[in-house]
Amino acid sequence: MEFRYSKEINPSVYDTEDLGYGIPLRMHKDRAEEIKGTLRAQNDWTNYVDPVDGYHGGLGDPYSFMCVTVPECLPDRLEVISYANEFAFLYDDGMESFDLKKDLGGTAGFLETFGAGALDLKVNVDPKTRPEKRLQAQLFSEMMAIDPKRAMTSMKAWARFVQSAARTRSLPFETLDQYIPARAVDAGELIWFGTLTFGMALTIPDEEIDLCMELARPAYVALGLVNDLYSWEKEQNDAIRAGQDYVFNAIWVIIKERSVSEEEAKEICREEIIKAISTYCRSLEETRNDSSLSHDLRTYLEAVLLSYIGNLVWSIYCPRYREF
């Protein structure tokens, strides 16, 4: 991959807690665009949906989410994908407040907003439409103005992700073997596919889509488990406040399945992260110079690796998982 918009960060200035697997961290050079998009999303949510006082999303110091997970985003797209990502964080916090086994009314509202009807731009002028849906239509319009084809790909992936993620959260998992495949879906492999392809102007040929998802799957497992490891305290707290009797998190699954302590469960989770990311790195070495694969597919797979290390470092330092 050619690096044009990012810089490598000296590994002596950040900690990976032995989960970095030697992958270099890169950061986008134009952090101001991420800040602009993120704050605009928070302001819109506050003005039209619900106040976000005390909320922490993607921003952090010195590591903000989009700058370290999509370090090679085209500069003119960083602001809008940062808006989209913050929108997803706000949505995720909203979903955490629902008991998906019981709160069907609340869940249905979110699915109506973010699911199959997400591509309908006409809702922006309908005063009866949920405010979240109008904001999403506004976001989609902005993306369409930049790159119509990839915007459509991105938003279709988003809609499929929301429907899939809601299904995976509908019941608690009893074993880690059951949980891990679902976690890859819930980690956002579909929405992140849309984010990377739009942000980096990549086009994966239709005949390579299934292969793309298959090759990237171990990285998304690792991404999801990193999220579980570092968001555990926040998600456990959210579940308690919502009156839920389970947490959609690998730590919860491991504790229940193996009757171990929280610290033992975290260590098992770490082992699973290393297993997944090592598998991905070996696969990437085999595909990196495979000329039978399209250039954009190989670039995408490299970008997912950068997303892994960026998500890891951000998760360790971010206020979102440390202040709640």
Task: List strands and helices in order, with pairings.
Layout: E1 6-8, E2 26-28, H1 31-48, H2 65-69, H3 75-96, H4 104-114, H5 131-146, H6 148-168, H7 176-186, H8 189-199, H9 209-242, H10 250-258, H11 262-287, H12 295-317, H13 319-322
Antiparallel strand pairs: 1-2
Helix pairs in contact: 1-3, 3-5, 5-6, 6-7, 6-8, 7-9, 7-10, 9-11, 9-12, 10-11, 11-12
Quick description:
With 324 residues, this protein is mostly helical.
- C-alpha-based Rg, rounded: 19 Å
Number of E-state strands: 2
Beta-strand percent range: under 5%
Compute the average pLDDT: 88
Strand order of the largest sheet: 1-2
Verbal overview:
There is one protein chain. With 324 residues, the chain is mainly α. It has 13 helices and two strands. It has helices at residues 31-48, 65-69, 75-96, 104-114, 131-146, 148-168, 176-186, 189-199, 209-242, 250-258, 262-287, 295-317, 319-322, and strands at residues 6-8, 26-28. Strands 1-2 form a two-stranded antiparallel sheet. Helix 1 (31-48) packs across helix 3 (75-96), helix 9 runs antiparallel to helix 11 and helix 11 runs antiparallel to helix 12. Mean pLDDT is 88; it is low at 98-108.
